[in-house]
Each structure stands twice: as C-alpha cells, then as structure tokens.
Write a structure and sequence with these properties.
Elements: H1 2-8, H2 20-40, E1 44-45, H3 47-50, E2 52-57, H4 65-73, E3 80-85, E4 88-93, H5 98-111, E5 120-124, H6 126-154, H7 157-181, E6 184-185, H8 187-215, H9 226-263, H10 266-298, H11 302-314, H12 321-328
Parallel strand pairs: 1-6
Antiparallel strand pairs: 2-4, 2-5, 3-4
C-alpha cells in the first residue's frame, strides 16, 4: 500500500526510457510467441467468415456439450462446434446441403425433446464471409491512415510512427492470444479490435502531448536530455494512464469472467476478450514501447545529440546515460 500511495502522489520516478532494452526484449518475445501461434495454430474463424450452418435451440431437459456434438456427428457432419447461448444452445457446422440440413434439424429435435419448428437454422455462404473480411481490412487501413494524418498534424511524423508501431504491436499480440486460446473470431471480435486501437491511441496521445509540452522547452542551455525530459513527462502521466486503464478494464473483466461463465453470453465473450487483452497490452505499449521508440528516433537528431554530449561532458546527463545509449546503439 505504501508503494501504491507513493506512486499515486508522484513520489516515485520510474525510469521507463532507461530500461528500453528490457521492454524491447519483452515485446520481442511476446511478438514471437504471438506470430508462432498465428503461424502454427491460425485463427479460429467464425462461421461469419468461412461460411457454414448454425442451429439454435433450447433443450427440454439438461444436456451436455458432448451429447449434442455426438448427436450431430452421427448425421455425417464433420465439423461441429457446440456453444452455450444463455438458456439455449448454438451448434455450428460446415456448409450443409438441404437434405443434410433437414436431417440434422430433425435429429436435434428428436434427441433433445424440442419441436422441429423451434430449431432455428441459419446458412451463411463463404462469399458473405469474404465480403465481411474485406470490409474489415478496408476499415483497418482507413483507421491507420487517419491516425497517421492526425498525429502527423497534431504532433510530428516521428510520434505518428511510434504510435503506429505500438498499435501494430497491440494487434499482433491480441491476435496471438486468440490463436493460442482457440477463441472464435467473429464480427464482434473485429469490433473489439477496432476499439482497442482507439483506446491504445488515446493513451499514446495523452503521453505524447505531455512529452511535446516538456521537450518544447529544451535548448542549448537545457539541463536535461530529450530522454530525461520524455521520461519525466511519462511519469507525470503515469497515474492518469493507470487509473484510466484500471477503470476501463474492471467492467470488461466482469463481462469476460462473470458474464460469459454464468450467463453463457457468446457474443459478449468474443468482444470482451479482445477488449480485455487489448487494453492491458495497449497500456503497456503506450508506456514501454511507444515512448522509448520515440526517444530512439528523436535522440538521433543533431539538436538533441548536441544537448546529450554537452551534459555528458559536464556530468549533468548521468541520469539519462542509459537512455542516451539508444541513440548510439
């Protein structure tokens, strides 16, 4: 509690920029694990993307996932995914012919004491799924372009580059979590992905705005290097970032761990997992990826290299010596 109180009062100065090797190594490891999951496991695309048939019904008596799966498999279906959907069940299969569809519908009704008319059937073609995927990619590209233009005008191109790298970092790691966990990727998941991009951008903009304000005062007589000033700005926004993240993550965690477990809310699960992972990774990247990368880019500029050399020669830049090494390395 003492550490939390000191952190809240701003009495602790965390050297985020100086520990750039630690953050880069951690991010590199997470990215490698995520890419391995995407390469070897791939994403479990929902029926909305790859096409298929969805059966929805309410069983008159208590049944298990295995009982439903076996009932559908006995009808010659090869791919069966069974999910609890509130008080009912949702069964997803590959695309079926009209005769297979009717047969499976009748078998479900017979095995689980449900009228045939109450077993709803929805067939989705792969062409519709491809259209959804294309629109999602277009939406992502437009979003990224808008971010680059906004940050380049509001701040500068190097800040835009650092923010984009952090956003890609967040997307890849979140997608890797989906690949390793096997969670189904649905249109709700894509909405979650777009939401975490906006959230991560908000956090980065708050940090960069403070960095811009602090570093604008740096000149030939400054007593701080760019890395020291950036780290100082980051510490001033630390509590705000952590508080914002905590307030946002708690309700999402409630949806993910309580709502989906007790209520069986499938769509909420698809959305909340993306939000939960993305918010945590987004907070980390805005503090430990975007800012150190920005310092790496900025300290290569002659103006800030001159300040660093002058302070190093007078012993005034010792605190930023580790982070100044970013520019040299």
């Amino acid at each position: 509690m003492g550490l939390a109180r000191r952190l809240y009062r701003g009495e602790i100065d965390v050297d985020f920029v100086g520990k750039w090797r630690l953050w880069y190594s951690l991010s590199g490891f997470l990215l490698l694990v995520s890419l391995a999951g995407l390469l070897f496991n791939g994403l479990n695309l929902g029926v909305e993307f790859k096409g298929g048939t969805v059966f929805s019904f309410k069983a008159a008596s208590q049944v298990t996932v295995e009982q439903i799966r076996e009932s559908v498999l006995d009808e010659g279906v090869h791919q069966v995914i069974v999910q609890s959907a509130g008080e009912g069940w949702r069964v997803t299969t590959e695309s079926l012919s009209e005769s297979q569809l009717t047969q499976v519908q009748s078998e479900i009704a017979k095995d689980f004491d449900t009228p045939v008319g109450e077993v709803s059937v929805q067939s989705i073609g792969p062409s519709w799924g491809g259209e959804v995927s294309n629109k999602a990619w277009i939406g992502l590209a437009v979003f990224m372009l808008a971010i680059i233009l906004y940050l380049s005008m509001a701040f500068e191109p190097k800040m835009a580059l650092a923010a984009i790298v952090a956003l890609v970092h967040d997307l890849v790691i979140t997608a890797g979590i989906y690949a390793w966990s096997g969670f189904e990727v649905t249109p709700a998941t894509l909405l979650g992905f777009l939401t975490i991009l906006g959230y991560s951008l908000y956090d980065a903009v708050v940090v960069f705005d403070m960095i811009k304000e602090v570093t604008a005062k740096l000149g030939h007589t400054s007593k701080m290097t760019y890395s020291m000033a950036a780290n100082n700005a980051l510490n001033h926004t630390l509590i705000r970032s952590l508080n914002t993240s905590l307030v946002a993550i708690l309700p999402v965690a409630a949806i993910l761990f309580i709502g989906t477990t007790l209520l069986g809310a499938g769509t909420l699960k698809d959305l909340s997992l993306a939000l939960f992972v993305g918010m945590i990774v987004g907070t980390y990247s805005s503090l430990c990826v975007a800012t150190p990368l920005l310092v790496t880019l900025k300290e290569r500029e002659p103006k800030y290299q001159a300040i660093a050399r002058r302070l190093a020669s007078t012993g005034g830049g010792k605190k930023g010596s580790k982070s100044t090494a970013v520019a040299k390395g």
